[in-house]
Structure formats: structure tokens, C-alpha cells
């Protein structure tokens, strides 16, 4: 099965950051907390982001996150 091939890891820092950095990003860029969590992870881990959400992609561009379109 294809899912068995994925290297899945759990980010231990996201819960701690939810009330601070993620909430700040959500307010600053008018995103849902859900979208802001993905954005924060991409910024912190310096990894590309894949999304079709225009607001999230605009915020990612502002923060110099590479987008996979």
C-alpha cells in the first residue's frame, strides 16, 4: 500500500506553539488556526508547502516559504 511507504513523523513542538506563534500567524495573515499551523511548520522546518488555498499561499509567499503548486 502506498501509505505504508510514507515517512510519517509527529511534530512535538506544534502543540506548544499553538497558543502563541500559530495563533499570531493566523491573526496576522487572516488564516484559520489550521492553516496557520501548516504555515508555521513550513517556516520553522524550512520545508515547502503545497496548498490550493489562496490565502495560505499569499501568506507563505510573504514569509518566503517555497510553494509546491
What does this protein look like?
The radius of gyration is 13 Å and the shape is globular. 22% of the residues are buried. With 69 residues, the protein is mainly alpha-helical. Helix 1 crosses helix 2 (33-45). It has helices spanning 14-29, 33-45, 54-62. The chain has a domain at 15-62.
In short:
This protein is mostly helical.
Arithmetic mean of pLDDT: 92
- Run of helices and strands: HHH
How much helix is in the residues? 55-70%
Derived structural class: mainly alpha
How many DSSP-defined strands?
0
| Major sheet summary line | none
Unreliable segments (pLDDT under 50, ≥5 consecutive)?
A: none
Q: What is the distance, rounded to the nearest whole angstrom, between the alpha carbons of the first and last residues?
A: 25 Å
CA radius of gyration: 13 Å
Q: Give the number of helices.
A: 3
Shape: globular
DSSP strand content: under 5%
Task: Give descriptors for this structure.
single chain; 69 residues; mainly alpha; 3 helices; globular
Chain-wise SSE layout:
Layout: H1 14-29, H2 33-45, H3 54-62
Helix pairs in contact: 1-2
